[in-house]
Amino acid sequence: MARLSESTVLLDLPDVAGRAALRAGLMAMRLAPTPLPTDRRGRDTVLRGLADKPHALAFVDISRGGSTTVPTLLQLDATLPRGESRRRIVLTRLAPGPGMGHLSEADRRWVQKLGFADLIPEFDPMDCEGSLRSALDLVARALALEPVTPAELARYARVMNDARDTSSPRATIRALSGLSAEGLGDLLSRSLDIGDRTWRLQRYPDCFVGSEAVAWMARHFKRSAPEALAMGQALMSLGLLVHVAHEHPFLDDKLYYRLAISVAADAIDLGDALTALVSGRGVPIADRSYLGKTYPRCWVGSEAVDHLVAVQGLKRHDAWVLLHRLMQFGLIEHVTQSRPVIDGAFYYRFTGMSADEGADPTEP
Question: Does domain 265-350 fall into CATH 1.10.10.10?
């Protein structure tokens, strides 16, 4: 086992409750985390140096949350060589942001395939045997330390409860269902009446009725209708649930919604999907105009869905889920950064390509 004096845990995390919960858990292991440099050059230098520090580990947040200083997966992949430095970096998506707050097991597999230790969406002191425990066990393995015991975690319960998140979408879901956001989404995908529905001659595949979902959650979790509605709205704010036309919030009404969950999409490597889109025979990229404004080197959302359907043999919903996940990683974006991925005539671009910095907020 390594000596504690040799062990270092570096943090580059947003100031949210999950950060405080992780710090408290590390304190239970007698570890005092230190911050990574805030400037990009300094941060990258330290992260590259992890390859030469067998008793060091870093937690780095890649959720954008409106910040330009947060590293993206694309930047880290370009900066850090494959090998030991990546294996000593745990990526997180803790920062709140519209539609950016969830991940799938397929997301985690892709991050691990790229060489990073893991990808974690939350550190919840109310779930000490879940992601927080997994993170602390990962620290113990990486630094060759004894894992923290349940008794030691209990000693720090008061500290973690003081830092407990009580108002975020994840906290709402945890309090009302006892599940993580991903767990609730998975349960709904297996329990609701999901199928093809029609409205005004328009067919909407793979969707469910909002009022039926509210009624099911109220019965299953023994909650009131307003509480069940709050769970659905929390799922929507995390991007796990969307209106079929992206036109309505989640309501206790006869409106159609979808879950951003797909077994078929999970079976496809996100890197392969991205390669299929950017290759020479990928989605058509061109300068496009809307209301007199030109948007260089962009593509159309529905055409990207068409391409993934043709190349990967997916249904449109499954192809949309892949694009949705690529956007969560910050690899694609709406040209004015004002829209999620929509299977329609909206313009998007790959973030590693030319960007129109002066984009007008008028949506194309």
Answer: yes
User: Is-contact 192 213, C-beta < 8 A?
Assistant: yes
Question: What distance, in Å, lies between the first and last C-alpha atoms of the chain?
Answer: 58
**Domain range 169-261, its CATH number among 3.40.640.10, 1.10.10.10, 3.30.1330.10, 3.30.70.270:** 1.10.10.10
Give the percent of the chain with pLDDT over 90.
65
Class in CATH terms, 4-162 = alpha beta
pLDDT, tens only, 101-133 = 788 999 999 999 999 999 998 887 666 667 888
Quick: pLDDT tens for 244-303.
Answer: 999 999 999 999 999 999 999 999 999 999 999 998 889 999 999 999 999 999 999 999
Q: Classify residue 129 as exposed, middle or buried by CB count within 10 Å of its CB (0-12, 13-18, 19+).
A: exposed
- Strand-pairing partners, residue 357, are none
pLDDT digits (tens, 9 = 90+) for 17-37: 788 888 888 988 889 899 999
**CB of 69 closer than 8 Å to CB of 288:** no
Boundaries of every domain in the chain:
4-162, 169-261, 265-350
